[in-house]
């Protein structure tokens, strides 16, 4: 497992994070995603973390950085599928996902991105 | 990692397989997926295997079985994102994905499912 797949849905890209992120995987994801935003002319990125039980500061920072990169390339990022326990932990640890909007699930995330782009 | 996330997109469900399947994970996926088909009244299932470099007979059978279960519940299954090397290996090994339709990517898969349901 050396790459996280990026799925294209119209002008949106969907990334499902299922495995523990480590440095190299995070770097590869950012490389791939920025490349795909340009190549596919994507206007939005959905990052699904419904499979993650834990979001630590490393993953949080990785998500924030990825969103910042996407933003520079004119694509908005929405984080979807966060588990309740993850939301609790994020607040308790004082971690903020700077510059990242969230939605309950992929459908809501798509709706949010469509509204912004209209 | 004990669950593969299932994403809902309209009346379709999307499963992205990123990790090596083992018995328990495959069983959990089939349980979850059949449950979600009923709960969400899904008409189609997209299984993305773009992250898989290898599809062996175990994964092949798991995909076929999952598609058969979905079919009984009145949902069609489309396998998307197969890597060229995987297609070569499947044919060389004589593995057939019985009852499973394939599409190049998620977008094409969605189109295929929409046509069938019209």
From TrEMBL, chains A, B:
This is STAS domain-containing protein. Residues 1-113 form the STAS domain. Pfam families: STAS. PROSITE patterns: STAS. InterPro entries: Bact_StressResp_Reg, STAS_dom, STAS_dom_sf. CDD domains: STAS_RsbR_RsbS_like. The lineage of its organism: Bacteria, Pseudomonadati, Pseudomonadota, Betaproteobacteria, Burkholderiales. PANTHER family: RSBT ANTAGONIST PROTEIN RSBS (PTHR33745:SF1), RSBT ANTAGONIST PROTEIN RSBS-RELATED (PTHR33745). It comes from the Bacteria.
